[in-house]
Amino acid sequence: MRPPRPVHEYTRRPLVRSLRAKWALATAGAGLLPVLVLAALTVSIQRRGLEAAERELELAAIDQASSSVEGVFAAAEEAVAAAAAILADDRLRDEDAKLDLARRALARAEAVRGVAVFDALGAYVGAIARQEDAVFQRTMPEGARVATPRWIVEGGRATRHVAPLIADGATTGWLVADFDQDLLARRLEDVSRARFARPDRLVLVDGVRRSSGVDHPLVARARRGDALPATAMAMTSSYTSVSGEAMVGSLRGMPSRGLALVVERPEAEAFRTLSTTRRALMALAAAVALVAGGIGLLLGRRAARPIEQLSQLARAYGKRRFEAKSEVRTGDELESLGEDLERMAGALLGSEAEIARRAAVEAGLARYLPAELAAAVARGEADFALGGRRKRVTVLFADVAAFTSFAERTSPERVVGLLNELFAMLSEVVFTNGGMVDKFLGDCVMAVFGVGDTTRDHVADALRAASAMHRFVGSSAALFEAAYGFAPQLGIGVATGEALLGNLGSDTRMEFTVVGDTVNVASRLEGLALPKQTLVTPEVAAASPGGVELASLGTHVLRGKAAPVEIFEVVP
Q: Does pTM top 0.90 for this prediction?
C-alpha cells in the first residue's frame, strides 16, 4: 500500500478538473454510442442495398453487351453464308452480278471488311472488299478447309470466319472473311458509356488460357480446367486488382464464342454514395459528441464545486485548522459528508491532548522498556501483573575493566559523567541491534536480545552488538582519556537460552526484567572476560552466524554451575 503523503504535500489537486472531464467524456460517450451504432447499421444496410443495385446494374450491362457482341458475330455469320450461297449458285451466269449481290450481302455485316475467295484446291482466286482497309491472306489459313461454316481462332480470339462454297453437293471453294475486331471494342465502349459514363468498364476476355500473361481475377475464379464454363453463367464478386485497388465486378461466359464478358469497377466508384453517407454520419457523431460533452462539462462543473469545497476543508484539517467549517449546502450526501468532516475535526481536536500524553509516556518508557512494550503501556494495553512468560533470549553483560581503581582516584561527578557518556553510547548500540537495555549495574550494562521482534536472530544481534561495543569504545578511547584521564575497555559475556521474561517486584514497585540461568551464565562469563574480550557459551557458538570466528578456551568451572562449561572466545 502506498503511504499517505505528508500534510505539506497536499496542494490544489487536479481531481476536480478530472471529474469535470469524466462527466464530459461520460455524457459524450452516452450520446455518441447510439449514433455510432445507428451509423454502423445505416452503412451496413446501405452497402447491402448498393451491392444489390450494383449487381443488377452490372448484369444488365453484361446482358446488353452480350447481346451486342452476339449480334455482331451472328450478322457476320449470316452475311458470309449469304455471300457464299450467291457465289456458289450456278444459276447466276453474270459474274459481275454475282459479285454485286455478294457485296450487298456482306454490307449487312458491319464487322466483315470483306472476303477472300479460294478454289477447291485452296488456291487464291480473288477478294470481295467491302471496306478499303480490308486485309486478305493469299494463302489458305490453316484449318480453313471446312465442310461447314466455322471461326478461325488465333491468339485465343475469333479473327476470321470461313464458309464453304457448295454447288450440287460438292465443295467448290471457300470464303475467308476478314473480321473487324475493333468493332467489338467500340460496341463495348458504347454500352460502358451508356451504363457507367466511362468507356473502359466492360472487358472482353479470351476463353482459352494462354501460357503467358495473367488471367483476369474473375476469369481465374470462374475457370474449371483450361477453359471457361461451358454455360453462359454469370457471377458477381469483390476482388483486388493487380494494382491493389479494391474492385467489384461481374462475369458472363459466352461458351459458343470461347469468350467472356467482364464488368469491373472500383469500389470507391460503385459505392460513392456510401462514402458520402459515412462522412455525413461522422459529422453528425462529432456534433453529438461536442454537444453531449458540453452538457457533461456543465454538469461536472456543478458537481465538482461542492467537492472542491470539501477538498479545501480536508486540506485545512490536514494543516490542523480544526476550527474550519463546511460551506457545502447542497441538501444531499455531499452536505452530510461536510457535517461528518466537521464532527471528525472536533473529535481530532479533543484527542490532541491524549495523543500528546501518550507520546510523552511512550518516549519516557522507551528509555527503560522494549519499544513494543512501551507502546502497549502508552496505549493502556500492557499487563502489569507480577509474573512473566518463558522465552528464548540472548543475554549480554558488558563491564568496564579497571573501573574500580579509576573511581577511587577521581571525584563522583567525573565518574558519573564518564558512565553517562559510556552508557549512552552502549545503549544506542543495543537499540540499533534490536535489543533491550535491562539495567545498569554500577559500571556494567545488562542487555537482552529477542524480547521484541520474534523474526530477528537474537544471537546474531547480540554478537554484532558486542563487536560494535568494542569498536566504539576503542575508537573513543582518546576522547575519554583526554576528558577523564581514563580510557575504558570492556569485558563482555554472552549466553543464550530460556529465561523468564516479565514483571518482578511488588504491587507498589516492580521492574520489567529477565530472570534465569542464562542471565547468571552471561554474568559469570563477563566476570571472566579480559579487557577487549568477548566470551560466549557453546549454545551461542553453535547458533552464531557465518563469518564469526570462535576459539575454544576449554572448560571452566563457573560459580553456581555444578558441571564445568566450555567457553569460547570471539576472535576479533
A: no
